[in-house]
Structure formats: C-alpha cells, structure tokens
Amino acid sequence: MERNVTQIALFTALIAALGLIPQLTLAFGVPITAQSLGVMLCGTVLGAKRGFLAALLFVGLVALGLPLLAGGRGGLGLFTAPTAGFLIGFPVAAFVTGLMMERLRGLPVGWGAGIAAVVGGVAALYVFGIGGLSIVLGKPVVEAALLVTAFIPGDLIKAVLTGLITAALFKARPNSVLSRS
C-alpha cells in the first residue's frame, strides 16, 4: 500500500516536473508541452489503475490552484480554457495506456509501451482534447480535430520516447514496471 502511494505521488510529480520544460503555445490557445509524456509513462510503468490515480491526483492539484501546468498555470479557470479537454483527459489517457500495456504482454516491453502510448496517450487523449476544443471554441468537431493535427508529430515522438524509457527501466529494474508485474 505505501509503495503504491509513493509511486503514484512520484509520477504525479513527474507530470508536474515535465511542465517546467518551456512550452510553445499555438495560435488557438493550446500549448505544446512535455506533460503528456508523463501521462504516457504513468500508464506504461504504473499500469492502468495506478497510472489513472497519478494523473487524477495531478488534475486535482491543478484544480486546487497549484501552478503545475506548463507555464505555471493552475486553478479552476483552466477547466473552461481551450486546454480543458486535454486536462480532463489526462487520467483517462493514463488508464487506457496502462490497460493497453497490460494487455500487450506478448510484445517486447518497448514495443508494447510505444503502441500503448499511441492508443492511450495520443488517441484517447485527443478524443477529450478535440471535444474540449470544440466546446470551448464553439467550433465543429471536424474543425477542432484539424487544429489538433499540429500535435501529432510531437506526440508520436513522445510515444517513441515512452517506449524507449519504459524498456530501459524494465531492463534495469524489471519489478519497477508494474504494468508487467
């Protein structure tokens, strides 16, 4: 139990720390950050349940006003901003990534983590992000989806990094990749 709480807290801190990497904000108000890499790693390393809880804790801390998002942002106002869908989608993305990782046990860890990151950390997160953009900006879903295409190259790089990092961690400390335990 204590180990689980510690790991959840550490990965919440990882998502926050990745927000310190300078962001690039696109014209429609959504920044490109490294924080979704942390969400992907929550799922591939911690698994579905713990990854979900780590990302949910992060979102809760942001809602309380802690300036943990890239650019030092926090507070309830973010849940009405163009980024709202992505923020709300973090826990679901971590869960889906972890669930995929758990289900892809037949694949090598790096490949499984990369695929899981694309399905959960990109596709599942985009569902929420596109929905949020559509609602907040008052645009049709198709138009909001076109805006999100700007993120695809960076997010695919993050998915590859997730695969490489998870595989390296598994090689160094197999028991630390809980999605494979």
Question: Would you mind describing this structure in some detail?
Answer:
This is Biotin transporter. It is a multi-pass membrane protein. With 181 residues, this protein is mainly alpha-helical. The protein has a single domain (2-180), classed as Arp2/3 complex 21 kDa subunit ARPC3 (Orthogonal Bundle). It has 7 helices and 2 strands. The chain has helices spanning 2-18, 35-46, 48-63, 84-103, 109-137, 141-148, 152-172, and strands spanning 24-25, 31-32. Strand 1 (24-25) and strand 2 (31-32) form a beta hairpin. The mean pLDDT is 94.
Shape: globular
- As residue ranges, the low-confidence spans are none
Question: How would you characterize the largest beta sheet?
Answer: 2 strands, antiparallel
Please bin the fraction of helical residues.
Answer: 55-70%
Give me the secondary-structure category.
Answer: mainly alpha
Give the strand tally. Answer: 2
What's the CATH C level? Mainly Alpha
SS summary, helix count: 7
Order of strands across the widest beta sheet?
1-2
Overall pLDDT: 94
| Rg from alpha-carbon coordinates | 15 Å
CATH architecture: Orthogonal Bundle
* Tally of structural domains: 1
Order of helices and strands: HEEHHHHHH
Task: Calculate the terminal CA-CA distance, rounded to whole Å.
Answer: 15 Å
Strand content: under 5%
CATH domain topology? Arp2/3 complex 21 kDa subunit ARPC3
Oligomer: single chain
